[in-house]
Write the structure tokens for this entry.
Amino acid sequence: MENQPGTAFALVVVGMCGSGKSSVAAHLKAQGWPVVRFGEVTMRELQRRGLPVSEANERRVREELRARHGMDAYAQMLLPGIREHLARGPLVLDGLYSWSEYKYLLAHLKERLVVLAVTAPRPLRYARLAARPERPLSQEEALSRDIAEIETLEKGGPIAMADYTIVNTGALEALEAAVDALIAALGTASLAFPETAG
């Protein structure tokens, strides 16, 4: 996929849990990129319902929202905010899960959508998930989450259809360097971001 230098686009970061999506988003946010997290929809709903943050509650909310509003529910809810950001410059979308969300955004944003898959071998992902300081997952919990996300949230499709892929098996610095190289190749490294980005 080609992007003209200076053209605002949404960089959609996809991947299985523990692959490094949030690290990519955090790296770009530190450079001034606005970040829209799909997971914030889940967190807001948990708060609205008065439910504690847990893997089980997050999964239940994700599945219920999509059962009630369609598999593209999160993309529909976030599209107005995405368009507002695109009016000012490029942004990062962190956590798109479903094939339906991908198709919905592709239909509404067309060439302004660039999908980056971040991948890592499953044993490495599970080791990262077990060691993370917030909401660590056991190997059994991580496997259960993988299966649920693939079977009920259509997560594999956007990863398979990504425009670019970074294999994240090394240090964080290597991942960040790969992201920087991709951004430079897309011609956005010198874009100015609004002071209010974030």
In short: The CA atoms of residues 85 and 157 lie 25 Å apart. The two ends are 26 Å apart (CA to CA).
